[in-house]
Write a structure and sequence with these properties.
30% of the residues lie in helices and 23% in strands. The protein contains five helices and five strands, in the order H-E-E-H-E-H-E-E-H-H. It has a five-stranded mixed beta sheet with strand order 2-1-3-4-5. Helix 3 links the parallel strand 3 and strand 4. The longest helix is centred in the N-terminal third of the chain and has 15 residues. Bound molecules: tetrahydrodeoxyuridine. The site of tetrahydrodeoxyuridine has 16 residues, from strand 1, helix 2 and strand 3.
Amino acid sequence: MSEKPDEKTILMLEKKALEARKRAYTPYSHFSVGAALLCTNGHVYLGCNIENASYTPVNCAERTAFFKAVSEGERDFEAMAIAGGPDSGEDLVLCSPCGVCRQVMREFCRDDFLIFFSDGKGGFISRTLSEMLPFGFGPDQLLGHGEK
Ligand code: THU
C-alpha cells in the first residue's frame, strides 16, 4: 500500500492538470482534457488529449501522460489528476477516465493508485484504480503464461 499524497501535492496535481488542458488539440470534439501523473519518485508528467482527422487515433490526456512517463523509463506511479470540459471557458464537467485509459492504468499501477477527476461542480472526486476497474485483466494474468 502506498501513502495517500498530502493535500499540497493533490492541489499541485490538479493545478497541473488544468495547465495541461490548455494544450489539448481538440478541433473535432471541442472537449479538452488535461492530466497530471505523479510518479513515486516525485516526477510529474503532463498529458492532454490529441485528436485526429481520422477520428480513431485520438489519444486521451491520461494515456498521453502515461506514455510520456513510461517512455522516459518511469514504472512506479502514485496518483493522477484529470480535468476536462468544453474548450470554451474554464468550466469543467465530470471527467472520469475512459475504459481504455483505465486498462492502461491497470498495466502499470497498483490497485490503490489514486485518480482525482473533475466532478463538474468545481471540485475533484477521488477513486482508487480498483474502484474504477474492478475485476480488471492485467499483467498478473498473463506473465508466466505466455507462449513457450
Ligand atoms: N477524453 C480524454 O482525453 N480523457 C477522458 O477521460 C475522457 C475523454 C477525450 C477524448 C476526446 O478527445 C474527447 O475527450 C472527447 O471524447
